[in-house]
Design goal:
Family: Belongs to the cation diffusion facilitator (CDF) transporter (TC 2.A.4) family.
Oligomer: single chain
GO molecular function, one term: monoatomic cation transmembrane transporter activity
Subcellular location: Membrane
CATH architecture of the largest domain: Up-down Bundle
Shape: elongated
Order of helices and strands: HHHHHHHHHEEHE
Pfam family, one: Cation_efflux
Helix content: 55-70%
Number of strands: 3
Radius of gyration: 25 Å
Number of domains: 2
GO cellular component, one term: membrane
CATH class of the largest domain: Mainly Alpha
């Protein structure tokens, strides 16, 4: 990008942010980043998320605007379905943007964990928006199957499909990459459905080719197929977001905890739990050590485990480590380490 263009984007708040952050650890399945330095980790990651959301909104708005012009010219219901969904996809930037802004707020006496859960709520709103766009697109496609209309400007129609693909792929790259960096389920889910949208946009080209060959129903059929693809996105996104809302977690996360504990032979994990609060991971772990150990030695073990956890799990925001008896099946009582 030319230097002048980059400066203009930065003036309007769309330039990338500089962070005092870096990733570390070799067992990082989440591709996160554990931040250090004077910049608060949550603010740094949410700034990065907001940057991706802004770019997504700009790209999809431009894409949808260009497609809408061709919809008016061609009368294509397939392109209409794709455009409606691109508009809905751009609109999803709003709840995500609000969620990331709220997540920057410090914990309060009421919200002691902060407002990271707002990201999950934003995910639910996004699912609702996508579902609505699927219903609208499906209705239009079915209506066109019943009441066929002539589709014109086939060259422009095909070009609009390609534009839709390029716009959505650009957004997908932004959202997935940044979502993985900051471990935001909502942002990653939105990125993957943007990628699927890009593929469905290419279906518009196929529909235009079918009409050009003389098969008039190719356009509404493609529109209906795009609708079915959107419903598939709704299902996948809803499952991902609801899993996190119910404190569900990838079993690999517990595997990471076990892997980190293996570097501290004196600590035997009795119980390990973890959950996401927004895009930050919180772990609750009970370990067993020899009862004859002095308190100071037990503290050294918990400190060593905590160090290994943060070293191997860059997305980890907090680790609550409790002590249990060496022969206990379940943790009880104990010492907390943060």
């Amino acid at each position: 990008m030319p230097v002048l263009g980059a400066r203009i984007l930065d003036w309007f708040g769309f330039g990338p942010r500089d962070h005092a952050a870096h990733g570390h650890g070799h067992h990082d399945h989440a591709s996160g980043s554990h931040s250090h330095g004077v910049i608060d980790a949550t603010i740094a990651t949410t700034d990065r998320g907001i940057w991706a959301i802004k770019w997504s909104f700009v790209i999809l708005t431009i894409t949808a605007a260009m497609q809408m012009v061709v919809v008016a010219l061609s009368g294509s219901v397939a392109l209409l379905a794709d455009t409606v969904h691109n508009i809905a996809d751009a609109t999803t930037a709003i709840p995500l943007w609000i969620a990331f802004l709220l997540a920057r707020r410090k914990p309060s006496p009421t919200f002691t964990y902060g407002l990271g859960r707002v990201e999950d709520l934003a995910g639910i709103i996004i699912v609702g928006i996508i579902l609505f766009s699927a219903i609208v697109a499906g209705y239009q496609a079915i209506d066109r199957l019943i009441n066929p209309r002539v589709v014109t400007h086939l060259g422009w129609l095909a070009a609009a499909g390609v534009v839709g693909f390029l716009g959505n792929e650009a957004v997908a790259v932004f959202r997935i990459r940044v979502g993985r960096e900051i471990n935001s389920a909502a942002l990653i889910a939105d990125g993957y459905h943007a990628r699927t949208d890009g593929l469905t946009s290419l279906a518009v080209v196929l529909g235009a080719f079918g009409v050009w060959l003389g098969f008039a129903l190719a356009d509404p059929i493609v529109g209906l197929l795009i609708t079915l693809a959107i419903f598939g996105i709704v299902w996948q996104s809803a499952r991902s977001v609801l899993t996190r809302m119910l404190d569900g977690i990838d079993p690999d996360v517990i595997g990471d905890i076990q892997h980190a504990a293996a570097h501290v032979p004196a600590a035997r994990i009795v119980e390990a739990k973890a959950r996401w609060i927004g895009h930050r991971l919180h772990a609750d772990i009970a370990i067993a050590v020899e009862e004859s150990l002095p308190v100071c030695e037990a503290k050294k073990i918990t400190a060593a485990l905590e160090h290994q956890l943060f070293e191997h799990m860059p997305a980890l925001a907090a680790a609550n480590i409790r002590l249990a008896n060496a022969d206990a099946d379940h943790p009880h009582g104990g010492h907390d380490s943060h």
